[in-house]
Amino acid sequence: MTTESHTTAARERIGRSEEHEGMDEITILWISEGMSCDGDTVSLTAAMQPSIEDVVLGLIPGLPKVNLVNKVLSPSLGGEDFLAPYRAAARGELDTPFILVIEGSVPNQDIIEGDGFWTSFGNDPATGQPQTINWWIDQLAPKAWAVVAAGTCATYGGIHGMAGNPTGSMGLGDYLGWDYKSTAGLPIVNVPGCPIQPENFMETLVWVLQHAAGDAPPPPLDHMLRPQWLFGKTVHEGCDRGSYYEQGDFGLDYNSPKCLVKTGCWGPVVNCNVPKRGWMAGIGGCPNVGGICIGCTMPGFPDAFMPFMDEPPGGALSSLVIKPYGAVVRRLRGVTNEMVNHEPKWRHRKSKLTSGYDPYWRP
Amino acid sequence: MTTTESRPTGRKPAQLVDMSWDPITRIIGNLGIYTKIDFANREVAECHSTSSLFRGYSVFMKGKDPRDAGFITSRICGICGDNHTTCSNYAQQMAYGIKPPPMAEHITNLGEAAEYMFDHTIFQDNLVFVDFCEAMVKATNPTLLARAERTDAPRGEIHGFRTIADIMKAFNPFEGEVYKEALRVSRVTREMFCLMEGRHVHPSTLYPGGVGTMPQPSVFTDYLSRLMHIIDFIKKAVAMNDDVFDFFYEALPGYEEVGRRRILLGCWGAWQDPAVVDYRYASMNEWGKAMYVTPGVIVDGKLVTNNLIDINLNMRIMLGSSYYDDWVNEQPFVTHDPLGNPVDMRHPWNQTTVPVPQKREFDGNYSWVMSPRWYHQETDKHLALDTGGGPLARLWSTALNGLVDTRYVKAVDGKVRIQLPKGESLPETTLEWSIPKWSNTLERDRARPYFVAYAAAMALQFLEESMELVRAGETKVFQDFEVPDEAIGCGFHEAVRGVLSHHLVIKDKKIANYHPYPPTPWNASPRDIYGTPGPYEDAVQGQPIFEENGPDDFKGVDIMRTVRSFDPCLPCGVHMYMGKGKTLDVVHSPTYGASHG
Ligand code: SF4
Ligand code: SF4
């Protein structure tokens, strides 16, 4: 969507230092045609702090003018008309710098023998055949001012990169390489979550835009390229049920308001702020409301956390020794956290599929 | 199968232009509409609908713990993930032989009601209405807009807009009053959802066996107070929609033909009655009919069956234009249902999904969607049922069945009556939806706000019943269970945009087979092995064009309205290619009728 019609004039920067190096206008090219459920875009529309309209309509001070190109939110005409800015960017002719947002995991196109595709975004004008998502990423990522991965599929592969998947799906880091740098010198900015917690995403996007405006350093990211301030703590550390855990008081089924660790909660080793922040407007947030944490923000999701409804390995141990051996528990937990902070080995770009897919699997 | 029964004589020689719209929208993936338009006779000559995304849920779920199925299948859809979780839990409950406590059913029902209110509202007001907004009508039918400016809105005292054009202005994206208000309502309704299901899109509190939501009185108060603040918005939405759609019929005679299909509707029912449902297959007919939206297959206006067992057994998954290998030569997973009825090899219980990526060829295979059909024994035909975008089939089936008789919603004499209480500015209101003459674009759209009202009314009842249980101390929300070594199950539900089923086979306590069938494969399916087009294709093909623009500046708004009326999966814009079409060399239409073969 170009927001031209909704923007009366480029906002003037008053009182800024002369030598600021930021840009005045930037385009967000959002592609959700990866292996996704589009839940991240839907989630995004729930954000209020700030809302996407606030950003696009210029209500947040200090940001460049933002042209958001996202199909869900676009009042534009679509088809080739909708694709025009993507095509321009692919040719290197877009008239503003752009942030490439990818939603959904990247399938492995190279495991397909002959013609065919797993997912596409528009058609190849020359052949009329579907244009693969891989082609678009190959064209756009080297030219992007920044690349943002929205949701666990795009960051680490997520559900669609599960064991036994036939598509060889992987996260953007696996696809572009973990040492990828955008033209601004930024690594991929990963905002995991299945789907993204609405405010987590908007806050990160705003930080990136503030950086684009020259008003902020790049957002601080951890070793899995997540914003540190959002993913630096565990679910458990923000959970309402934490005091039950401390007292060794556990729910034995889902009828209980007590700690859910015995019924499947992975909160102690999962990096996520959802119980603390709530899901939207402070409402909801998995264990607080009675939902086990299934680790949906993690690189190891989902395989490392399945079966979800069983007690996590080590859960009993750490819940037994919780009081006397706090320090030991922290260390043990560190080990588990390490483990779930890794992606399974089959998410890669090689032309051989190693996810364990068997087309005629029978028990 | 096409709706276009006969062509009037005196037609001009066809002037065909290729027009395609791809990407149209993220229908959990990628929907493309490819047409040939006959500008001489102002109608669509041919239509193919494609989906270009394969993810493979039914493939990678194999071998997993069946209890994980709801968590995984939620991720099929980024807008109605909860509908999938709920449906998966229904299927699992059948397989595990359990029944959740009544409070769990109410909480699930309240979550689903909030989902319907949220999703239909954001879709209709923020996306469908862009096709009916002032800016769009000006660009496509300027004379219609001029007339709208002169036409008083008959229900102005309810919704507050004086003319039809005033309503259209309020639909304008980002700026219009209704557009902005709908975004607010879509957030409030999502908060209501999160109160019950923890988070939106993918719920965290739903389990096979019940929910984990704590039934504190405050949860229900928080939900109710939000509901009461949007209740007048719902009343206004119905009035506004009626005004605009009535105006279209009146101002553009023949508009009823836009998106009209033969009446072939399917509804799988929604909201369980906790007093009746036990999730046993053998009693599915009884508890299916007790659902608060009644299931039904409707053919040419007649109710063919409301029995979920019949509905289940006659499902057929066809190939014909899809990128998969056939599975008919595999071993069946399920030869007979629990009542001893034979189960067809093309039934979801027996399906094996084997993806074969290949080129797109419109006279060969062109879609990742398969072709679900419903086998009508009486006529020996595989019917391409559609869902009417959800609400149309739900209201139609409920009205025809005449079984729903609740505190606020009653189905009588081919009508559905919905009673909404007094709100901030409008009095207590009774709305009445009657079975329309056509299954077409405008009626699919009209049904949507009525169903939002329906969901609000049901939510009021579920809230009252929940509080009765809380006060009686019946606050159990979860029923424990064991996963059996071998079992089968099926779940039937309504995703926001229509029929949803999950079919599950368990062997050695693992998932041996799992096939979810959401509404979009029904609606967006390509031509099947018999050449029967899917509903989008059928509804668009043969429809007249009312847009005033010629081929050079054609926008395709009438086609866009039709595809959109089915609610293509996400609340996404249907983005049409508005560039210049390429004129084909062909002068005669090669397609009417023949294209189906
Ligand atoms: S419910 Fe989960 S996150 Fe909360 S205290 Fe228990 S283990 Fe930790
Ligand atoms: S608490 Fe767990 S399940 Fe919930 S959003 Fe965070 S990581 Fe996902």
What's this entry about, in short?
The complex is a heterodimer of chains A (363) and B (597). Chain A has 363 residues and is α/β, with parallel strands linked by helices. Chain A contains 13 helices and seven strands.
Characterise the protein shown here.
- The complex is a heterodimer of chains A (363) and B (597).
- Chain A has helices at residues 39-44, 52-56, 79-90, 133-140, 152-156, 172-176, 198-212, 228-231, 242-246, 274-277, 286-289, 315-320, 326-340; strands spanning 25-31, 65-69, 98-103, 120-123, 130-132, 146-150, 189-191.
- With 363 residues, chain A is an alpha/beta fold.
- With 597 residues, chain B is an alpha+beta fold.
- Helices cover 35% and strands 18% of the residues of chain B.
- Classes of the chains: A alpha/beta (363), B alpha+beta (597).
- At the A-B interface, α1, α3 and β4 of A face β1, α9, β5 and β11 of B.
- Residues 193, 235, 270, 272, 274-275, 286, 293-297 of chain A line the site of one iron/sulfur cluster.
- One iron/sulfur cluster binds at residues 193, 235, 270, 272, 274-275, 286, 293-297 of chain A.
Q: In DSSP terms, counting alpha (H) and pi (I) runs of 4 or more, how many helices of chain A?
A: 13
CATH topology assignment of chain B: Cytochrome-c3 Hydrogenase, chain B
Write down the domain tally of chain B.
Answer: 1
Q: What name goes with the CATH superfamily of the largest domain in chain A? A: NADH:ubiquinone oxidoreductase-like, 20kDa subunit
- Give the domain tally of chain A: 2
- What's the alpha carbon Rg of chain B, rounded to whole Å? 23 Å
Briefly note the structural class of the backbone of chain B.
Answer: alpha+beta
Biggest interface: chains and residue counts? Answer: A-B, 88 and 90 residues
Q: Write down how many β-strands of chain B occur, each being a DSSP E stretch of 2 or more residues.
A: 20
State the end-to-end CA separation of chain A: 49 Å
Outline of chain A: globular
The CATH class of chain B is identified as Mainly Alpha
Tell me about the largest β-sheet of chain A. Answer: 5 strands, parallel
Subcellular location (chain A): Cell envelope
Keywords (chain A): 3Fe-4S, 4Fe-4S, Iron, Iron-sulfur, Metal-binding, Oxidoreductase, Signal
Pfam families (chain A): NiFe_hyd_SSU_C, Oxidored_q6
InterPro entries (chain A): Cytochrome-c3_hydrogenase_C, NADH_UbQ_OxRdtase-like_20kDa, NiFe-Hase_small_C_sf, NiFe_Hase_small_N_sf, NiFe_hydrogenase_ssu
